[in-house]
């Protein structure tokens, strides 16, 4: 199927040059972590409940160039923020440092992801003796976009520190390590979708993961007469339409509140079926139990449970459609997922809902939904490759009409990105 188009040789050389200047080492000594962003076509907001999810890496993401520091010192520089971050890998890291701006400024608090990676490795009893000198940069305009840039950054630091300390850690182990960063260090109650997509994806495939059993499979679309190019990047492309909203997910109480509502719904349903000792997750509620007792749930909890069970069913239907090369059917399920996120999960914001509706009207679009929780960031869409440019221009024009202030803050060249599938995180 060819190779991913990212990162380019030019991007790699820029990163190597910066790290070489920082460390006074040769560019040949510089290693680069390639950590892609991800999209989740189906499986919105059910990974934390042990549901089935689908995901795919894209050809955008985070690059972390680094060299081992030769001692325990960590020195980091960012393309986005001013000032270096400095700390030592032999210092104990604690979760309460997430709100302690130890580096001294709001901007330099971006170093918490690197500290979180050290925290995770320490919690897993790895002895770190080697720090890194590193430079991190992300694809332009896509930070805080709902593409799981936080997981991409956290995993980049994990892979770099593991490489510098000659640690051999499997992808499945690193999924849990990154959860320690997000859950244990940052206090975000998310599941394993983001980390899994970044670490387990394969170019051109759709990743299916059962978040209860942790089992996963990679599904390549079938070429059919009705969709002759559906198993190549030329058959479809991915649109990312930015909203201009940049609020950090960890600062929005809506996400954690909805996770708690899902667990409360599960608890009520499990108690009603005599399974009060089972962990209160909706994946532990059988569909027939849900149907028999859903009338017991008050309105908000009923909506959260309805989203979980309908979304889980859409994932399984979508996997069949994808495997058969039925992109139009796959797209309709994505659109239904987006609608359920708005109506039943009640996430999103007015600009994101408007973007979602504009994308569904755009030429050649098969389906669209929020990328992330919809509180900020972007929407994603699958689109016929032959109409991607036309669709992108339509979305840019229409969004400017309804949100002139937010759209006016965006770079017109990156406000709607046309993307392709990507590959899993790895080190060059």
Automatic annotation (TrEMBL):
Q: Pfam families from the xrefs?
A: GHMP_kinases_C, GHMP_kinases_N
The segment(s) forming the GHMP kinase N-terminal domain are 113-200
Which GO terms are recorded in the biological process aspect for this UniProt protein? galactose metabolic process
- The answer to keyword Nucleotidyltransferase applying to this record is no
| Entry-linked InterPro entries | Galactokinase, GHMP_kinase_C_dom, GHMP_kinase_C_sf, GHMP_kinase_N_dom, Mevalonate/galactokinase, Ribosomal_Su5_D2-typ_SF, Ribsml_uS5_D2-typ_fold_subgr
Does this UniProt record's set of keywords contain Ion transport? Answer: no
Q: Which keywords has UniProt assigned to this entry? A: ATP-binding, Carbohydrate metabolism, Kinase, Magnesium, Metal-binding, Nucleotide-binding, Transferase
Q: Any idea what this protein is called?
A: Galacturonokinase isoform X1
What lineage does the source organism belong to? Eukaryota, Viridiplantae, Streptophyta, Embryophyta, Tracheophyta
């Amino acid at each position: 199927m060819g190779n991913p188009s990212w990162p380019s040789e030019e991007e790699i050389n820029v990163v190597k040059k910066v790290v070489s200047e920082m460390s006074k080492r040769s560019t040949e000594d510089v290693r680069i972590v390639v950590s892609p962003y991800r999209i989740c076509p189906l499986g919105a907001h059910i990974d934390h409940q042990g549901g089935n999810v689908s995901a795919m890496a894209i050809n955008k993401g985070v690059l972390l160039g680094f060299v081992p520091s030769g001692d325990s010192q960590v020195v980091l520089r960012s393309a986005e923020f001013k000032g270096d971050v400095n700390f030592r890998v032999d210092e104990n890291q604690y979760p309460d440092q997430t709100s302690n701006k130890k580096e001294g400024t709001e901007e330099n608090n971006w170093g918490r992801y690197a500290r979180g990676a050290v925290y995770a490795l320490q919690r897993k009893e790895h002895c770190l003796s080697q720090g890194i000198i590193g430079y991190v940069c992300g694809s332009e305009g896509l930070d805080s976009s709902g593409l799981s840039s936080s997981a991409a950054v956290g995993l980049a630091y994990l892979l770099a520190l593991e490489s510098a300390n000659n640690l051999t850690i499997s992808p499945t182990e690193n999924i849990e390590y990154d959860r320690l960063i997000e859950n244990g260090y940052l206090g975000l109650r998310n599941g394993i979708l983001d980390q899994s997509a970044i670490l387990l994806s394969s170019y051109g495939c759709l990743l299916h993961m059962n978040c209860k059993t942790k089992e996963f499979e990679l599904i390549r679309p079938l070429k059919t007469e009705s969709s002759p190019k559906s198993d190549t990047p030329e058959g479809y492309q991915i649109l990312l339409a930015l909203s201009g909203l940049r609020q950090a997910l960890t600062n929005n109480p809506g996400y954690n509140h909805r996770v708690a509502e899902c667990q409360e719904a599960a608890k009520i349903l499990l108690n009603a079926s005599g399974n009060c000792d089972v962990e209160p997750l909706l994946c532990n509620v059988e569909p027939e139990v849900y149907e028999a007792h859903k009338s017991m749930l008050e309105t908000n909890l009923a909506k959260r449970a309805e989203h979980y069970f309908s979304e889980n069913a859409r994932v399984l239907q979508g996997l069949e459609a994808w495997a058969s090369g039925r992109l139009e059917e796959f797209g309709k399920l994505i659109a239904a997922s987006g609608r359920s996120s708005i109506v039943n999960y009640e996430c999103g914001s007015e600009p994101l809902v408007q973007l979602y509706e504009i994308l569904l009207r755009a030429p050649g679009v098969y389906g669209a939904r929020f990328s992330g929780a919809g509180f900020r960031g972007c929407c994603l869409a699958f689109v016929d490759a032959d109409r991607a440019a036309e669709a992108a221009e339509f979305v840019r024009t229409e969004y400017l009409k309804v949100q002139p202030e937010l759209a006016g803050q965006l770079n017109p060249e990156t406000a709607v990105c046309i993307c392709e599938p990507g590959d899993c995180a790895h080190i060059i």
